[in-house]
Amino acid sequence: MKPTPISLLTGAVLLLLPSFSLSAAGDTEEEQSKALNVYCYDSFSSEWGAGPHIAESFLEQTGINLIYNAPGDGVTVLNQLILEKESPMGDVVVGLDSSLLKRALDAEILDIYNSPALKDVPSELIFDETYHLVPYDYGHFAICYDSETLKDPPVSLEDLTSEKYSDSLILMDPRTSTPGLGFLLWTEAVYGDKWPEYWQRLKPSILTITQGWSQGYTLFTAGEASMVLSYGTSPVYHAEYEDSRRFKASGFSDGNPLQVEGMGIIKGTKNRREAELFIDFMLGEESQKTLALSNIMFPANRKVKLPESFDTALRPEKSLQITAAAGDINSLINQWTEVFSH
Amino acid sequence: MRYLNGKLDGAGVLIWPVLLWITAFALPLISVAFKAAGSAAELTGLIQSPYYWGVLGFSLKQAALSTLFSVLLGLPGAYFIGRHHFPGRKLLRSISTVPFVLPSILAVLGFILVFGNSGLINSLRGNKEPWKILYSLRAIIMAHMFYNFPLTLRIVGDAWHSLPQSKYDAARSLGAGPVKAFFTVDFPRLAPAILTSAVITFLYCFMSFAIILVLGGGPRFTTLEVEIYRLIKYQLDFSRGSGLAIVESITALGLLAVYAGIDTVLRRRTADDDNAVKIRTPGTISGWKILPAILYLIPALFLIFAPLISIMAYSFLTRATRASGLHFSLSHWISLFGSTRVGISVPLKSVMRTFILGISVAGITTFTAAMAGWYTAHRKGSLVRLIESMLFVPMGVSTVILGLGYLILTNSIPGGKTVRLAALTAAHTVMALPFAYRIISGRLKLISQRIPQAARAAGAGPLKSFFSVELPLARGALVTAAVFSLALSAGELNATIILAPSDFTTITLAVYRMIGSYDLFGACALGTVLIVISIISFLTLDKYGEQTL
């Protein structure tokens, strides 16, 4: 018999059922032992992130299962926490960075935890003195460049406006991306009120402005431009996993903005003790090394021995603190949009 | 089947489509509405802002231009595919749908590898000053053509394939030349299909976002969707964000209303009695047609194939040492399927998951669209109009808003994986349903009412005649609908990120995560797997679609 459309359709619907029942079988196993709900950005919990490895050794050492809930990037995680503030489902959050601190504090979604493990963390990384968010890794925003195509990299923001860099820089949109916003705040920190004029001078050097870091960095690695806004630690990946040292990060005389990623205990958790255990565990040397090599960031714990590939990372002479209130950020971005609508 | 003859006259078949629509579409939107109750003052503030008017104007302008060029590029292809046999025809038809599957980040990569400042075209030109093709409005339109002209190619191609023979013969025998016969007989029958593909293309481009920013060259080219994303996601400004989303939806739905009106008029004039009985046999491309065929096919094929092939080629390159440039290597393939970092099973499983999910979505969507299509093709009245607009509305709603709805709802969804997978399937189904319904109902409406009547006179009930006569006649449309639904599901990212259980990594998610963790070459290798499997699946599906044609 020739298959009729209906038999094909029915077949397709039937295919669905086993896949669901299979996954339902998987569910029941999860419920058996003690579990901790961790809210995180998706690149942490994915197979390419530090999450799976950390969950495995945490279970081994404490008998507690980690269940990750990753609805998107860091901003989305914060949004979800705010949306479910009245009836929180999570115990711990991982991945709210220094730029989200003010919003997280204003929303009152976190509890204080001054972990004893913070003794190994340098004090300049403690970006929240109220200990709602504690740091686990950090890096600097930096202009990365391809040393094969660019022999004389810029060493200051002003350098970037030079004619020889015409159409060679890829930036991210501050409306939709964290590094993009970091760069805008960077120019404001250096130029004060004069930052719109700086951006006017910078325009000819910009090849394009992408929605997010991934697209920008993709264009850069594909050779479309010789410079990209990224992290000072980005060269580490190419050294560690591709055995290539052609990509470098440039330290700027204006200083490079510091970005610290933090974690905290969600207000209303019923598993406070387990949540504290998890935060201490994340700051331990083993997890810190895993985090550094998956996130390609510096570990917060100063005792961690880093592989040689980290020699390629930028350790800027001057570190800038860029934090701004949510209201200021909105008006900055509105002004920025003005600069580009002419 | 007695209930079919009852008061509601067959409305029972609508229970399933309506139920699905409520759970996966209306419910998330309602939950956003509860959060978004904004003041009227804020909305008037938005309406008075010249900036947002400019953004709306640009959104419409780029969508109109993109639609115009996508349809123009698609029409000759539809003609060749619908009316002719030529070597590679089936392959072209199937491959043209692949861009739909492609995660936008890989499409962008494919584009810069071909058209970029240091891309294929510029490197062929040698050491001259690079020819700046991208980072302009032109680049946005080209990328939208790459994505959308397959819609015209297939939807209009299917219509062209099933044009009636006898009317054309009659026109010719009454002395009309081929041109006149085309415009009096064929064109009116193609017009609804052209309109359908144009409207779907327009809405797609109107809501487009990531591609516009990166290929346009930055914030000069901002669409409403970018601003909605910023307000909702980065500023948690639900009232202003949804205010803009309402403006966007009203514009889109207004267009859909106009479309529905024109469509009804067009179809009323062309219902055929015999189109299903005998269709014209396709010819070969010969004589004078060879030259235009070549002039058309080469650039069109280049636009689809060059970016796809670049991505595939890129996965075989590496830059192992500091000094050397790119050279051939299998290392990314080896690490993709044997990585110690991730483990062997992840990429393979992601392929399986994508296709299990995609096939489920395609099956359910086609089934749902066929049920709704049966009702609207056989009945008249306000319920029909209501169903038609319900099935179209999802195309006019911002995915940022829908995503926010899902984000709110996931709290209420008990953590179970099964529920989340079902929600994900439902979300993809609702997104694909407007396409599938348009494609299927368009075909069902063209099938004469007399055919099922004849079948019933011979003793078949209405459902039996639907299954045994009408559906087989609409097979081409069913398969096209299924292919697009599968492609849409495989390439969808936003709802997948939010709804997929944390270990349910699909190919698109894997590609994004690999690029997010710097592994661009590996992402290209996985993208290549996606492209190849899609071509095979579409070819297989299309084979069934062509059997009765």
Structural account:
- The complex is a heterodimer of chains A (342) and B (549).
- Chain A is 40% helix and 19% strand.
- By secondary structure, chain A is of the alpha/beta class.
- Chain A folds into two domains: 31-138 and 259-312, Periplasmic binding protein-like II (D-Maltodextrin-Binding Protein, domain 2); 139-258 and 314-340, Periplasmic binding protein-like II (D-Maltodextrin-Binding Protein, domain 2, 3-Layer(aba) Sandwich).
- In chain A, strands 1, 2, 3, 4, 5, 6, 7, 8, 9, 10, 11 and 12 form a twelve-stranded mixed sheet that branches.
- With 549 residues, chain B is an all-alpha fold.
- Helix content of chain B is 74%, strand content 1%.
- Chain B has 25 helices and four strands.
- Chain B has helices spanning 15-36, 40-48, 50-83, 89-95, 98-101, 104-115, 120-124, 137-161, 165-173, 178-206, 210-216, 224-234, 238-268, 290-314, 331-338, 345-378, 382-392, 399-412, 417-446, 450-457, 462-473, 475-491, 494-499, 507-516, 520-546, and strands at 84-85, 283-284, 317-318, 327-328.
- The longest helix of chain B has 34 residues, at 50-83.
Percent helix range of chain B: over 70%
Beta-strand percentage of chain B? Answer: under 5%
How does the major sheet of chain B shape up?
Answer: 2 strands, parallel
> Could you name the ranges of chain B where pLDDT drops below 50 across 5 or more consecutive residues?
1-7
Query: What is the residue-mean pLDDT of chain B, rounded to a whole number?
Result: 82
Q: Provide the structure class of chain B.
A: mainly alpha
CATH superfamily of chain B: MetI-like
Summarize the helix and strand pattern of chain B as letters. HHHEHHHHHHHHHHEHEEHHHHHHHHHHH
**Topology order of chain A in helix (H) and strand (E) letters:** HEHHEHEHEEEHHEHEHEEHHEEH
Mean pLDDT of chain A: 88
Oligomer: heterodimer
Distance between the termini of chain B: 30 Å
Question: What name does the CATH topology of the largest domain in chain A carry?
Answer: D-Maltodextrin-Binding Protein, domain 2
Please bin the fraction of helical residues of chain A. Answer: 25-40%
Shape of chain A: globular
What would the CATH topology of chain B be?
A: MetI-like fold
- Number of helices, where a helix is a run of at least 4 consecutive DSSP H or I residues of chain B: 25
| Domain unit count of chain A | 2
Ends apart, CA distance between termini of chain A: 66 Å
Shape of chain B: globular
